[in-house]
Structure formats: C-alpha cells, structure tokens
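Render this sequence as a predicted structure.
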Amino acid sequence: MTMSNRIHPAVLDAASDLRKGLINRRDFLRFATLLGASATTAYVMAGCATPTAAPAPAAPAAAPAAAGGIKRGGAFRTGMLLQLIDHPSRMSWTESANVVRQVGEYLTETGPDNITRPYLVERWEANDDVTEWTLYLQQGVTFNNGDPFTADDVLFTFQQWMDPDVGSSMLGFLSYLGSANNVEKVDDYTVKLHLQEPSISVPEDVFNYPAIVLHRNFEGDFIRQPLGTGAFTLAEYAEGERAVLRARSDYWRMGADGSPLPYLDEVIYVSIDKDASVAAIQSGQIDAIFEPRPQDWQALAGVPGITVDTIGTAQCFVLRMRVDLEPWDDNRVRTALKLCQDRERITQLAYYGEGLLSIDAHVAPVHPAYAEKPIPAYDPEQARALLEEYAAEKGLSLPLQVSLATKNDRAEPEIAQALKEMAVAGGFDIQLDITEPGGYWDRWTEVDLGITSWTHRPLDTMVLAAGYNVDGDGNPVPWNETRWADEEYLGLLRQAQSTLDVADRREIMSQIEDIFQERGPIGNSFWLNVWRIYRSEFQNVIAHPTSYDLLYEVWKDA
C-alpha cells in the first residue's frame, strides 16, 4: 500500500469495532474521514452506499433539479446583522464569517452530516500517533486577484492564527500545535504539521469560522483587501446596513451540471431588525432569515412559499461566570446559580421546548464521546443554603445582588427573565442588562456574568479547547470568557484530544463532564434545534448546524 492511499491503522481498528457492534455507523464514518480516509472509502468500509448529499467540493453530486434543470442567475438576500469585519482570523461571530466565507475558503469543510471532507486540501494523512499531519493542497486554485493558491498562503495563515497579537480564537483550537514554527512547507502544494501534543481534531479545527485561508500578502483588514479563493467577490460592505457579493467568472470548482460555480449572480445581506424579519420574508424583501428565533419558526412553519428545515445541534446559550471576579470565584455561588435553573421550564418559556435538556457542561449529545448524565434538578433550597454559607463568611446579607448581561436578538431575554424569577427563591436578586447584539459582543469576554450564544462544533474537544483553555504560558486563550483554568480538567482535555478510540474518549469525557458540574464556570439549560427558513423558489439550500451559509450551489427556480 502506497502513502497516497494509506489507511490509518486506527481506521482499520474502528472498522473492526463497527462489525462487532461497539460503535455505530455514523461515528465510524466521522472517525474514518477525520483520519484521512476518503468519504467513498469510509462508506465502502462501513458497508453502505456512497453519500450524495454532502460531497467533497472537488466532485460535487447532483443538486436536486427542477423540471427545467438547474438555472443560473439571480440574487439570494438574507436578513442578518452586519458587524465590524477587519481581520478574519479574529472573527467571533458566525454572521461576519457568512459574509467572508463567500469570498474566502477553508482547508476543509464539515457538512451537515458532521463528516469533514477536503476543500482547499485535496487530502490529508496522519501518522499513527496523530502527532504529524500532512496536508496535500488543491492545485489550480487562484485568488480573486489572479495569484495562485500555494503552501505559502497556508503558512502565512497559520502564522496569523498562532500570533497572540492577532487575537485569534484559533490559538485555542490549535493549542496542540505550539507555534507556527511547527508548520513546515514541504513543497508548493504540501504542508506538514508537527504537533507538540497528539490531536484527532485537526481537519475539523481548520473549518472553524475564523479559519479562512488568507492571501500571503494580507495586511489585516478584509474590507480594504478582500482577497480570497471563493466564488464571490466583495462589491460592497456597509457595517450595520448591507453587504453585496458578486459571482466570479473564474472560480475553480465546477457545479453539478458541469458548468462553473456559483449559480447565483449575487449574494446580498441586509441588516434588518429581527422583529421585522417575518414580514420581510413573506413580502419578498428578503429570501432567508439568519438564525430564526422560536417565534419566527412558529410564525412561518407551514406558510405556503416558505421552506422551514430543522436540524439538531450543539448550539447553546451558556450562562457563564467570570471565576476571577467576586462572587463567582467561589464555587458555592456558581453552584447555587446552576441549581436555580428549572431547565424544562426555561426551554419551554424561551424556545417552545425545541431543544434537548442539558447538564452544566459544554459537551452535547450530538458529540461522539458524550457521556450521558442525569439532568440536574431545580433546587432553590439547596442554592439558598449555599448562598447563606457564603454570605455569612463574607459578612453579607441575602438576597445576593448580581447583574446578568446578554443580547436581545434570539432567546436570551426570555432565558434571562426566567432565570431571574427562578433564582429569587435561591437567594439571588438578578438585575438584567440586556442590549442590542453589538452592545453585548463588544464586551462579551469582560462581563462578570453573562449569557453567551455558542455555535455548534462537531467534536467535543473543539469547543472545550476554544472556550476553556490556556495558552503555553498558562494564560486564558482569547475565547476563555470565564477565565477558568482547572488543572485536572486541562490534563483530561489533553488526554481526550489524543485519544483515538471513541469509547476510551467517552470515559475521559465523562470525567470532564463531572468536573464541569461539580466546579465548572457555566450553566446550560438546553441544546438548540435551529431552523433554516427561506423562500421555496431557492433550491439546494443547506441547513447547517453551525448556521453557515454554504451558497455556491444554491440556485433560483424562478
């Protein structure tokens, strides 16, 4: 067997486990493709037909065609908040990434089926202990200024991610890499990653939304210098107003009909008030709503001419506490607030029950190594007992007054109001500080108590590495909004990142979940269902669990 078609030995072990019934087919497919097996090979080994719903970009499957076939032209307009965009590696919001991803692209792509496939890489290989990853890049790809895409662009991009001065969350995701010095250019189309610690998540980590591949001469402001290998160019960007993206005529990929992508002429984002979005899509002012709220889903489900797709996710609204600030530096206070969550009631009040109840750990049932635990009960009496003990030591009286900050564009206000009322019996007096989204995102890592919306990640270790991690000097990584740095947890996270066997990793994840519940910095009532709501004349629109807009193969049947 040559290196070009080498199958990682752990994939062969996993195939054996699949035959014995020790893992399910879905987990095998994810695992095999992560370790470099092609989707076709993985499906053959799993004994099932090769999928056509989420193909590798280089060989797309046929899109669903109307009677007249795929049509070209037209614009797709989405109502979505338009935020400040400067350095893509610093993006903290899916909204910004949805604009940038039409112009720039990623090394890999994780589809709605949770399987990660090559994109700007043609394929990848990992050594036996997953400490060395070789990325073989696509050839013949050009940036929108005509420059060829090569290994130099990938090296520059990794340097930006790993530079603390840039402030990229990728620094947390790629903590196992150590530094950009461990990224080697083998030749113009081959890059090798030498990891300081083993990790199974490299292919999925490089599809995080700040992981857009940059041009080697990028100077730090994407609006001024919108260079990318993607199917559209940025024609207009007005923060808080409008973004216009126009199709390239020289994009490198072909569509399902054998003609160049994209099918649309334009992608347009319009910044409109969430309360106006239902009327706007019904009237045809917009064609889609970004991250519809529960009330939008309820209003539009079943409406003629509107399509509503539903998908379960690892998205959540995290009740997060700054453990470096009083009173949240005391675990009794953190635990008390967690005990004030009536999770089932919060889910009903804030989200019409459209989600799965959660434990107080940032590991979701959709993650492969999730270890099922009992859902904690609402217990305000125990919460008050803990607060009384804390207050007596500090010379305070109850209720304990705290301020809870969040934003108002999704279900956060309803969650905040419900928690405020439920926590009264537990001894808290919660003052609400609810602002427009920009008012919260400008300070989301700084407030002492907040509700932060976190998007879906396909692998359990990914979000833990990004949100609850430290750098090589022991300092919280950019997205560690809680400043939590528990040594036992961090050691287990490193173990989980290097553990290939899903069952073994689940045992580690079980310990991590226990630590989160016993002394962690967050509460979490439920995991969200999310909806893709769009006008029905548009075809091949994908409902992605991370709310990513994958629009190159969307077309308008009108």
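Summary. The radius of gyration is 23 Å. The chain is about 30% helix and 20% strand.
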